[in-house]
């Protein structure tokens, strides 16, 4: 349980996490109920005509067979496997199969361009790339496994789970850092243990639940909330299959008795734009993360379904650690509360600030969900630490009840449909265009709960928008690309010459 210090400082205190066993495997932990549950449906991939169902027994056999297949290619524990797969069940099976074998799984967005994937390969040095033909992957000397070969592995005899030090790397995810350069975030096997804090303090997840996540298999939000956590609990995961449109989700939720629905705020906005009321008799509540939820959407969802929405906040370096829940609903102005068991603080330069004062959200180094570090960049890892605290960079304040109110995003990080995007990464790419002398990007709310990335640039003359779009899309994943480009005489700066990114919105309003 979390409490607040006697000194009335913005810091939660908690009983320490249970020490992980000396020998641990994340995949074994996720599937620890599979033998007990046997024929229970672990996963249903939903389409309008039918559902593809995977029992717990089938899922575990496929994961351990895939582990055998990976080891038969000559891989050894500690080797890295890059996943270039689409929105199919092959993604989580390959992910858990690699981790089961003691390999380090590297999930990656299928939207990445060849140039971006080249950077991922150079940074992570995988020993194997698992890829689908329709997912971008550059020519490389790294051995590859196609979809047919991957699926054949599922029927192989099961490999035993590789149990070893819980501190060893288990998987790597990518984030755009404040410098604009994507960083490889290394997580230990023990990171899965920190997700237990979400079961009560966000999901209220039970074994009998049927949790539907609206995202694709290959999104980290879906992988954690939509798959790993329901399987750890012994619940049923429901995932819409490829091609399912937002308008079809209400019927699928009703037809398959979804009791919890998880999505980014934009999905809720689209659903509410399609119909004023939603008949979801088995739904207990909804979950949302990825970007800030507006109070208007929260209220409209309550009116349309009779159920509440509970929001969570996290990051690639530590997943989700602040949330609201049925047992602890948040006020309209706050993000929620530190999940019980988490040790968080709002820090100033001298440590935790008094309650009510602004500071930086920080996570104690003892949190098992905290990353091991940025791959190959010890300096960047050290920069994020202040003593025993990891600095998220997000500004907030904590009140006497422990509620945390968000005050500003770290370095103006943008949000594109739930994906965090660094403006500096996008600007670095656009600056390379010969017709651009300076450029600034930001995300702008164009309608309620809908934010899109806009670019503002200077140069000798305006450039055809299609030319700029093609330039960006050849170098950036689609979700990172600006949706509009505006030619301006100069960019807004302060007295010290620093870009005033927040002054870009008035420019947008004056031009539209």
CATH class of the domain at 23-39 and 52-193: Alpha Beta
Q: Roughly what percent helix?
A: 25-40%
Structural class: alpha/beta
| CATH architecture classification name of the domain at 23-39 and 52-193 | 3-Layer(aba) Sandwich
Strand content: 25-35%
Output the CATH homologous superfamily of the domain at 23-39 and 52-193.
ANL, N-terminal domain
Tally of strands: 29
Gross geometry: globular
Overall pLDDT confidence: 91
Write down the Rg.
Answer: 23 Å
Q: How many H/I helical runs?
A: 16
Spatial strand arrangement across the major sheet: 4-3-12-11-13-14-15-16-17
Major pleated sheet? 9 strands, mixed
CATH topology of the domain at 23-39 and 52-193: Rossmann fold
Uncertain residue ranges: none
Measured between the Cα atoms of the first and last residue, the distance is: 51 Å
């Amino acid at each position: 349980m979390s409490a607040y210090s006697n000194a009335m400082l913005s810091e939660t205190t908690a009983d320490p996490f249970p020490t992980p066993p000396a020998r641990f495997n994340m995949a074994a932990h996720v599937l620890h109920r599979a033998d007990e549950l046997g024929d229970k449906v672990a996963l249903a991939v939903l389409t309008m005509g039918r559902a593809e169902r995977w029992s717990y027994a089938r899922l575990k056999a496929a994961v351990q067979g895939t582990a055998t297949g990976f080891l038969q290619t000559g891989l050894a524990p500690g080797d890295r496997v890059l996943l270039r797969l689409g929105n199919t069940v092959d993604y989580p099976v390959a992910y858990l199969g690699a981790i089961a074998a003691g390999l380090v799984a590297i999930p990656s967005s299928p939207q990445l361009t060849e140039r971006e994937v080249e950077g991922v390969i150079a940074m992570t040095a995988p020993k194997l790339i698992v890829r689908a033909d329709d997912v971008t992957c550059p020519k490389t000397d790294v051995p590859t496994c196609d979809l047919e070969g991957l699926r054949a592995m599922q029927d192989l005899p099961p490999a035993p789970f590789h149990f070893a030090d819980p501190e060893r790397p288990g998987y790597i995810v990518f984030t755009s850092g404040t410098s604009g350069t994507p960083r490889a975030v290394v997580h230990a096997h023990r990171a899965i243990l920190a997700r237990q804090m979400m079961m009560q303090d966000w999901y209220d997840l039970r074994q009998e639940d049927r949790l539907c996540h609206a995202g694709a298999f290959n999104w980290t939000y879906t992988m954690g909330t939509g798959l790993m956590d329901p399987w750890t609990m012994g619940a049923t995961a429901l995932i819409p299959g490829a091609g399912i449109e937002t308008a079809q989700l209400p019927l699928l939720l009703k037809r398959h008795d979804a009791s919890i629905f998880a999505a980014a705020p934009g999905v809720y906005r689209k659903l509410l734009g399609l119909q004023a009321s939603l008949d979801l008799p088995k739904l207990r509540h909804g979950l949302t993360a990825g970007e800030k939820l507006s109070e208007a959407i929260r209220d409209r969802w309550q009116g349309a379904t009779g159920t509440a929405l509970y929001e969570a906040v996290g990051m690639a370096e530590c997943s989700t650690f602040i949330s609201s829940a049925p047992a602890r609903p948040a006020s309209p102005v706050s993000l929620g509360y530190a999940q019980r068991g988490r040790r968080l603080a709002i820090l100033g330069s001298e440590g935790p600030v008094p309650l009510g004062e602004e500071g930086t959200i920080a996570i104690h180094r003892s949190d098992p969900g905290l990353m091991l570090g940025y791959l190959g960049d010890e300096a960047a890892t050290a920069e994020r630490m202040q003593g025993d605290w990891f600095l998220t960079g997000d500004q907030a304040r904590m009140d006497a009840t422990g509620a945390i109110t968000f005050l500003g995003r770290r370095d103006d990080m943008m949000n594109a449909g739930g994906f965090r995007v660094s403006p500096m990464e996008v600007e670095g790419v656009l600056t390379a265009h010969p017709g651009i002398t300076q450029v600034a990007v930001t995300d702008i709310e164009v309608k309620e709960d809908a934010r899109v990335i806009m670019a503002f640039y200077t140069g000798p003359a305006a450039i055809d928008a299609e030319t700029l779009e093609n330039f960006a899309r050849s170098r950036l994943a689609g979700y990172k690309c600006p949706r509009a480009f505006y030619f301006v005489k100069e960019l807004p700066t302060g007295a010290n010459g620093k870009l005033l990114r927040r002054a870009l919105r008035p420019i947008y309003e004056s031009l539209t």
